[in-house]
Amino acid sequence: MKIILATDHAGFELKEKVKHNLINKGFSVKDFGAKTYNSSDDYPDFIIPAAKFLAKNNNCLGIILGGSGQGEAIAANRINGIRAAVYYGGPLDIIKLSRMHNNANILSLGARFLDEEYTMEVIELWIKTDFEGERHLRRIKKLDI
Known about the structure:
CATH architecture: 3-Layer(aba) Sandwich
Shape: globular
Oligomer: single chain
Number of domains: 1
Helix content: 40-55%
Radius of gyration: 14 Å
Largest sheet: 5 strands, parallel
Order of helices and strands: EHEHEHEHEHH
Distance between the termini: 28 Å
CATH topology: Ribose 5-phosphate Isomerase B, Chain: A
Strand order of the largest sheet: 2-1-3-5-4
Structural class: alpha/beta
CATH class: Alpha Beta
Mean pLDDT: 95
């Protein structure tokens, strides 16, 4: 499975660690940037191209990062076909439900609230959790208008 990554400066350091960990676990990774740390970059410049790519490639999942993950999820969710869920801590059931009930195809992480080890635990849980389908599919189909 291919994993799409994107971040701005606030998530840059954690994205680099996530990328390294995913590659070591055998995942194919496509990194939309930021490629270098730049404190004045803007998250839409990286998030929107990543979300557009993911919307056209169903065999991928996306992980985007920012300070809180909120703005990044808002940007990604403007693209039809994208369902970005935000996580910056709290019960892990949030992660499972984002996949089981919402079929989230992007996980937006708040890098200022998560460390590397916990982030990888969250990502692994999110990737391995399957969509339940059925009644949830009916609801998801109503989102892309």
